[in-house]
Structures are given as structure tokens and as C-alpha cells.
């Protein structure tokens, strides 16, 4: 149900690949809630995905940008403001990639050049996005910046390897830039630590099905879906959460507060 929560707001959504993507769901919900926005992704991801279909559905323009390139981001923010006719009210950073995971490298055998790419794509790009937004004074007061994280930033999930460090970096950047942008423009910056979700990127992690089933059995509410995450993200873009900033917000059906559940005990006992 739409409530015009984002009526009149303008945004940039990074990372929509296909209909399974959380960013895709956020875009659809943002449109329903009255927002205008541009879509962006790296050129290679755009070739692999279906972003043109989403753009047509949401009446949104696409601006290709590699989020690791400051030059690309400068072009993105300049063009986004021209297209939208003003400054930006919300940004979704839904970007993550690990060459080591994609190529099956174990944690003890990481390729360090690929490790640096993981950190740049999945973590440092968040800093670059806000750096460019700050330099261009592209954000409206009381704007909202959200990035998607995962609990592997705090806990060990062996097959998540170097992405766990990228998510920890992402959350640290949110706190530090949240302070800076809060003082400067009353802009809030948060991360959402989402349940394991059956996206194209998520299912590429080794052992994902075990992650997913374990979290579902541990969580009293079960795993949060991509649609659930989109709804939560919309609430953070809205004026209803104006005083929430510098937080890593657990959106996981209660998983992060659990020690063990009856379902897991029963499974082990059998």
C-alpha cells in the first residue's frame, strides 16, 4: 500500500541488476511512494542485468557509472541533478562483489589484488559516493543515505571470506561519514544488515543454501525477504526516520539476537 512517503523526493539508486535485486525492489517501492530517481550501475553489470526493464517500469533514466571511479561518480551526480531538477534526497548503495568468492578462493588462499578490488567495490565505493556528493553539495538537508550490509561484518561465516571485511569497512564508513554529513547538512547515513537473501549476488556465495536455511531456523520471524528490505529502506528514506543516523540496523527477523533456537536444537538432536 502506497502512502506518498517519498512524494517530491529525488534520489539515486545504485545496484539494481534484475528482479531478484533488493535495489530493484527499492526502486519499485520508491516509485510507488512518489519519488523520482535515476538508476545507475557499472557498465558490465548493466550488460548482465535487466536494468532497462526497470527504468521503463519506473519512468527513470539510467546513468552508467563505475562506483569505484570518482570521475564516473562526478558525472553521475552532475547529470542526476540536471535530470531530476534539483539536489538529491536519498541514495541507495547496493553494491558488492568479490573476485575471490566468484573464483572460489578460500580465506587462507586469497588473491590480494582481488582482495583490494573487493574492498574498493564493496566498501570504499560508499565513501567515494558520499565524497563526490559532498564536494558537489548535491544533497538536500535531511537527506538519507543507505547501504546494504550483512552480519558477517561482525561474525564469522567461512565462505564469506573477504566480503566480511568489505562489509565491516562499509559500516565504519557509514558511521564516520554519518557524523560528517550530519553536522554539515543534517543528512543521515545508515547501513541495513539484511538476512541472507536469494539475490543473484547472494546465491553466488559458497554454502548460501546452508546460510539461508540456518538463518531461517534461527530467526523467530524467519528470514526477511527482499521486499521486506525494500519497505524498510523506504522508511529510512522518508521523513519518519529523521533522527536515525550512524546506525547498522539489523533487518533479519531476530537472527542477530539469538543464541540458538528450538528448531536448530531439534535438527541437531535428530
TrEMBL record:
Domain of life: Bacteria
InterPro entries, A to Z: Enoyl-ACP_Rdtase_NADH, NAD(P)-bd_dom_sf, SDR_fam
Active site annotation, chain numbering: 150, 160
Amino-acid positions noted as binding NAD(+) in the UniProt annotation, renumbered to this chain: 15, 21-22, 95, 167
EC number: 1.3.1.9
Pathway: Lipid metabolism; fatty acid biosynthesis
Annotated TM spans: none
Record flagged with keyword Protein transport: no
Coiled-coil annotated residue ranges, if any: none
Keywords of this entry: Fatty acid biosynthesis, Fatty acid metabolism, Lipid biosynthesis, Lipid metabolism, NAD, Oxidoreductase
Pfam families in the record: adh_short_C2
PANTHER family in the cross-refs: ENOYL-[ACYL-CARRIER-PROTEIN] REDUCTASE, ENOYL-[ACYL-CARRIER-PROTEIN] REDUCTASE [NADH], CHLOROPLASTIC
Family label: Belongs to the short-chain dehydrogenases/reductases (SDR) family. FabI subfamily.
Listed name of the protein: Enoyl-[acyl-carrier-protein] reductase [NADH]
Annotated organism of origin: Pontibacter chinhatensis
Lineage: Bacteria, Pseudomonadati, Bacteroidota, Cytophagia, Cytophagales
Amino acid at each position: 500500500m502506497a502512502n506518498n512517503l517519498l512524494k517530491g523526493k529525488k534520489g539515486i539508486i545504485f545496484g539494481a541488476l534484475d528482479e531478484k535485486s533488493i535495489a530493484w525492489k527499492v526502486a519499485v517501492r520508491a516509485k510507488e511512494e512518489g519519488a523520482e530517481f535515476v538508476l545507475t550501475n557499472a557498465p558490465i553489470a548493466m550488460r548482465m542485468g535487466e536494468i532497462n526493464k526497470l527504468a521503463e517500469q519506473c519512468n527513470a533514466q539510467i546513468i552508467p557509472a563505475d562506483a569505484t571511479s570518482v570521475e564516473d561518480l562526478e558525472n553521475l551526480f552532475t547529470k542526476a541533478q540536471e535530470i531530476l531538477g534539483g539536489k538529491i534526497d536519498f541514495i541507495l548503495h547496493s553494491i558488492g562483489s568479490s573476485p575471490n568468492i566468484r573464483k572460489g578462493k578460500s580465506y587462507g588462499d586469497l588473491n590480494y589484488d582481488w582482495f583490494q578490488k573487493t574492498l574498493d567495490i564493496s566498501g570504499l565505493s560508499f565513501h567515494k559516493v558520499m565524497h563526490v556528493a559532498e564536494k558537489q553539495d548535491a544533497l538536500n538537508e535531511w537527506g538519507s543515505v543507505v547501504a546494504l550490509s550483512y552480519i558477517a561484518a561482525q561474525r564469522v561465516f567461512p565462505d564469506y571470506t573477504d566480503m566480511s571485511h568489505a562489509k565491516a569497512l562499509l559500516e565504519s564508513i557509514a558511521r564516520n561519514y554519518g557524523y560528517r554529513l550530519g553536522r554539515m547538512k543534517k543528512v543521515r547515513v545508515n547501513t541495513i544488515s539484511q538476512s541472507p537473501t536469494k539475490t543473484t549476488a547472494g546465491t553466488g556465495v559458497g554454502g548460501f543454501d546452508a546460510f539461508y536455511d540456518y538463518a531461517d531456523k534461527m530467526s523467530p520471524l524467519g528470514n526477511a525477504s527482499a521486499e521486506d528490505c525494500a519497505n524498510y529502506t523506504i522508511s529510512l528514506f522518508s521523513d519518519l526516520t529523521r533522527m536515525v543516523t550512524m546506525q547498522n540496523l539489523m533487518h533479519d527477523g531476530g537472527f542477530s539476537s539469538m543464541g540458538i533456537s528450538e528448531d536448530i536444537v531439534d535438527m541437531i538432536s535428530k
